[in-house]
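It is worth pausing here to work through a concrete case rather than discussing structure prediction in the abstract. The textbook approach is simple: state the sequence, then state the predicted structure, then interpret. We follow exactly that order.
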Amino acid sequence: ASLLASLLTREPKHRLGSPESGGALAITRHPWFAGLDWHAVYRREVLPGYRPPTASPADTSLFDSEFTRESPIDSVASSVGDGLAYEQRRLRAPMEDDVAGGSALGEAEPLVRGASPTPGADGEGASLSADGTPLWYFPRWEVALQP
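Step two, the predicted structure:
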């Protein structure tokens, strides 16, 4: 099936990228992305096939005026990642015996598989999950991307 048809499947549980279809990993393994180096994408080493000319980083001249005439409205998502397959680690309450300089909040950052390896204790190699899959870190999300 085509990538677009798979992403636009009406039934959410059958849609490419849903937890039932294999999550983000299923998207990365779609034939349309064959040969794409996801690590290079994360490191922003992959150049886009086309980059439209802009006068400045804030240039909106290529956006339809229907959208640029609208007044911006601040909104807060009711549920971060609603409809996305991700995991978030629990915040750990600081303990009295925590070492000064340690951060309980630092442990709240979720893991992500697929971007850049987390060095082991010796600074070499990548940490592994329970199933032996290398863990890769992104802030706030865990996406199952295979290296």
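Step three, interpretation. Strands lie at 112-117. The chain has two domains: 1-36, 37-46+83-147.
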